[in-house]
Amino acid sequence: MDVTIFAPSPALTITIEEQDARPDIHIHAGGQGVWQARMLRRLGVRVTICCALTGETGRVVQRLLEDEGFRVVAVERSGRGAAYVHDRRDGQRTEVAEMDGDPLGRHELDELYGATLREGIASGLTILSGPHGEGALPADTYRRLAADLRTNDVRVVVDLAGDRMTAALEGGVDLLKVSDEELRADGLLEGEDVGSVVAVMEAMRDRGARNVIVTRADRPFLVLDGRTVHEVTPPALQTTDTRGGGDSLTAGVCAGLAAGEPLREAILTGAAAGALNVTRHGLGTGEQETIARLRDSVRVRTLRGPSADDSDDSHGRVSPDGLAALAEPTDHRPHHEEPAPEDPA
After folding, report:
1. 3-class DSSP state of 165
2. Which of 205-209, 276-280, 306-310, 314-318 shows the lowest mean pLDDT across its residues?
3. CB atoms closer than 10 angstroms to residue 106
4. pLDDT tens digit string along 9-68?
5. In which band, very low, low, confident or very high, does the pLDDT at 189 lie, cut at 50, 70 and 90?
6. In what order do the strands lie in the sheet with 94-99?
7. Whole-number mean pLDDT of the chain?
8. E strands of 46-149, at which residues?
9. Contact status, residue 61 vs residue 29, Cβ threshold 8 Å
10. Which of 69, 140, 156, 255 lies 20 to 30 A from 337 at CA?
11. Cα 226 to Cα 118: distance, rounded to the nearest angstrom
12. Is residue 286 within 8 Å of residue 184, measured between CB atoms?
């Protein structure tokens, strides 16, 4: 199983914890694409990360990624790379310092684009993730990449919002994952009821997404699988840190898709991976065996579609309440395997 991740600007992350009343400092590679890659790796998927690595922070990030067992295809350049320092000694994340890094130049972007296209065709499934920093690269890059990858029979998954999501939809995607909070911030969602969310998901399908997942914080997330709507309830576990939970969900779904599962089955792994990750300090982490066992605790109700009926179990049937909710207002190349690393912060 192989997945390519477009992670244009991974960040160097420094997190200060407290252990035995003393500072405990952790240094890792981070950013959305890296957290997705980390969970995929834990689930036994070979991952190629296509990225730009900038300056001295970029050199450190490359070494950290390679030490985790990822195949890194990088555009190396001088300048300021993305990085942040977070203090979590009181149990909450406090930003000490953060820099977005320099925007990609035209030649650098051309090189990264070509590398992503090449590796995506080789793996057959590509995740387009967001950069660390709003101005890292033009949003239209996502439209072009999505279109060119799909033209070459590559399945495209995006976990984006705002202008980057809009651009990717114009290119066409196989799966869009987004949160209701992001949709609300973009002015695309007003109501909080299931029917309102489903209406937006259908609009996303009409704009270019074959399938759509919308997460809703601590409420069940919704899946538009073609023209079938599922409501998915992950296992209820104690939360340590919600950051990275959505990226773990995306990675879990992609692990299932890469293994040949239909979306209806892949969302079980995604729900389990996301639920486990929020119990941990490490972003994008979790044991494969635990995730496999948690799959059995995921509840899926088919709210609308050919399989909807009055039953309700972990393999996705619907109750009358679920139907009423909708009536509320409006192929692959192997890479070298290495042991998984310790949990990153």
Report:
1. helix
2. 314-318
3. 8
4. 999 999 999 988 899 999 999 999 999 999 999 999 999 999 999 999 999 999 999 999
5. very high
6. 22-30, 11-19, 83-87, 94-99
7. 86
8. 46-54, 71-77, 83-87, 94-99, 125-128
9. yes
10. 156
11. 28
12. no
Integer Cα distance of 317 and 300 in angstroms: 7
3-class DSSP state for residue 235? Answer: coil
Q: Is the pLDDT of residue 297 over 60?
A: yes
Q: Where are the beta strands (DSSP E) in 121-172?
A: 125-128, 155-159
Helices (H) and strands (E) in the chain, counts: 11, 14
Token output for 297: 């605790």
Lookup: tokens for 6:
């477009």
Q: Which residue has the tokens 């299932």?
A: 256
Please identify which residue in the block is written with the tokens 């997460």. 215
10 Å CB burial of residue 238 (0-12, 13-18, 19+) is exposed
Nearest to 269 by CA among 70, 34, 40: 40
Residues 256, 268: contact at Cβ < 8 Å? yes
Query: How far is it, in rounded angstroms, from Cα 91 to Cα 29?
Result: 21
**Closest to 271 measured CA to CA, from 300, 242, 243:** 300
Task: Report pLDDT for 290.
Answer: 87
Structure tokens at 60: 């450190």
| Closest of 7, 10, 19 to residue 251, by C-alpha | 7
Type and span of the H or E element at 80: none
pTM of the model: 0.84
